[in-house]
Amino acid sequence: MSSLFLPRSLPSEFFMGYTLLAYSRVSINKGSGILGGYNNNIYYICYSLLLTGKVPTTEQVNALSKELRSRAIIPDHVYKAINALPITAHPMTQFITSVMALQVQSEFAKAYENGIHKSKYWEPTFEDSLSLIAQLPAVAAYIYRRIYKNGEVVSADDSLDYGVNFAHMLGFDSPAMQELMRLYVTIHSDHEGGNVAHIGYLVASALSDPYLSFAAALNGLAGPGHD
User: CA neighbours within 13 Å on the CB side: how many for 154?
Assistant: First the structure.
């Protein structure tokens, strides 16, 4: 990331013990993660840090990237649910509808119905979370293009990293936008404050699956007074 988007004045403990400036120069060596050298996989690195507390290896970054790509397929019924809404519907209304349509694939809901022990709740929750993370960019981009670009959809490019691929599907391919989107998704991967996160936690406390919890949080985000 260039200094245009990443000032050197960021605090030293900004994100999991590292500055975003340091993340922008993360280089992954085989077998161990070290800081130094530019890397385009900043989102995968930060996501792995949130899960494990460690800078991931090359193999771990590649495995996560591959896993998310494999889960990014959107079922046809999701697009049908979006298209059933007027194009004038608020973007967040369309987004929330798409998440609720994705909920039918919830692994947690299926596992709970089958009597999974509470000590194993985290496993299908993790599966749902991975799938949701993988699918959200394509759905969000579809809604954006539906409303503002005459429905001219831009297909995903699996050769691109998470943030850049999202920018690409939105229709932005400039280097500046690519860097901005990498920074944007990285910062928001650890967004745990305000009414949105509170709503998500509250709904999840009732054993609602990640899709239901995330949709509820989005309803809070859609309000004009959200913080």
Answer: 19
Q: Cβ(167)–Cβ(185) under 8 Å?
A: no
CB within 8 Å of 121: residues ≥ 6 apart: 108, 111, 112, 207
With contact defined as beta carbons under 8 Å apart, do 186 and 23 qualify? yes
- Which residues neighbour 117 within 8 Å (Cβ) at sequence distance 6 or greater? none
* 21: its two tokens: 């400036």
Which residue from 187, 188, 180 is spatially nearest to 18, judged by alpha carbons?
Answer: 187
Q: Do 35 and 55 contact (CB within 8 A), yes or no? A: yes
What tokens were used for 32? Answer: 């161990």
pLDDT at 97 over 90: yes
- From start to end of the chain, where are the E strands? 26-29, 32-35
Which SS3 state, helix, strand or coil, does residue 214 take? helix
Mean pLDDT (the chain, rounded) = 83
pLDDT digits (tens, 9 = 90+) for 106-147: 999 999 999 999 999 999 999 999 999 999 999 999 999 999
Mean pLDDT for the stretch of residues 30-43: 48
